[in-house]
Specification:
20% strand; alpha/beta; 44% helix; 247 residues; seven-stranded mixed sheet
Length: 247
């Protein structure tokens, strides 16, 4: 099985060394899977570019790695579209989108995703997304479980589907054929927002009748209470905007 992993980077020089080390260490645990990494630096004004090269050199990955740089800042949507298009040029069954984010475990995320994809390698019409949760790897505490369930009910009441919620952990997996169809869809090609692509793609796939599967991911700083996080608020807004746009 072949999996291409795309990673957008924007001013994350301090986080890159740990992220790349963790990602590569996790990938080495999987036998029978051929991985490629595609990393795009969105014209970061810190030392992200140098940090990427240094981290990859130290890791001695043995993987096929594609490094790209935007000459000027293009934002999340354009950067991700570029990453997806380049990754689709190399044969693979699945493409995983990763984020550089210290608040979750790279090992947990990639292990869960890659294990799921290996067990379901024949599925060509399924999008897999991570869902932020306060549940620890040892299981939820009664307080966290109650808060998270309340938030799930609130999101469901606001129009979220029972199998997809906007508070994604920034990690998604697509069968390559389905992703190619999604990128060619008019609603995606005409999408002009700088953010929200990670909502648009799975919701569009669901509208086409595809299956959406959510994998819970523990995040140590996540609050299930609406309005307590700027990133959470932007994700909620993106979800509602996309939902109105394609409904």
């Amino acid at each position: 099985m072949r999996i291409n992993i795309v990673i957008p980077v924007s001013n994350q020089a301090n986080e890159i060394p740990f992220a790349i080390k963790s990602i590569i260490a996790t990938l080495k645990k999987f036998s029978g899977v051929r991985f490629r990494l595609f990393i795009l630096n969105d014209a970061s004004n810190d030392k992200s570019g140098k940090a990427i090269v240094r981290a990859l050199t130290e890791a001695r990955t043995g993987l096929e790695i594609y490094l790209m740089d935007n000459h000027k800042t293009e934002g999340p949507t354009k950067s991700m579209l570029k990453l997806y298009q380049v990754a689709l040029q190399e044969p693979c069954e699945f493409i995983i989108k990763m984020e550089i984010n210290r608040t979750f475990s790279y090992d947990e995320v990639l292990t869960k995703f890659c294990t799921y994809l290996k067990l379901n390698s024949g599925k060509t019409d399924e999008v897999v997304t991570g869902f932020r949760t306060l549940f620890s790897q040892l299981g939820p505490t009664p307080e966290n479980k109650e808060e998270t369930q309340e938030r799930l009910q609130e999101m469901s009441a606001s129009g979220c589907s029972e199998d997809y919620f906007p508070e994604s952990v920034g990690v998604q997996a697509f069968p390559s054929g389905l992703l190619k169809r999604l990128l060619n869809a008019e609603v995606v090609q005409s999408y002009g927002k700088a953010w929200g692509l990670d909502v648009l793609l799975p919701i569009t796939a669901k509208k086409w009748g595809c299956t959406l599967t959510t994998i819970p991911m523990y995040e140590n700083s996540f609050s299930p209470r609406p309005g307590e996080s700027a990133s959470q608020e932007s994700q909620d807004k993106a979800f509602q905007l996309v939902l109105r746009m394609i409904s």
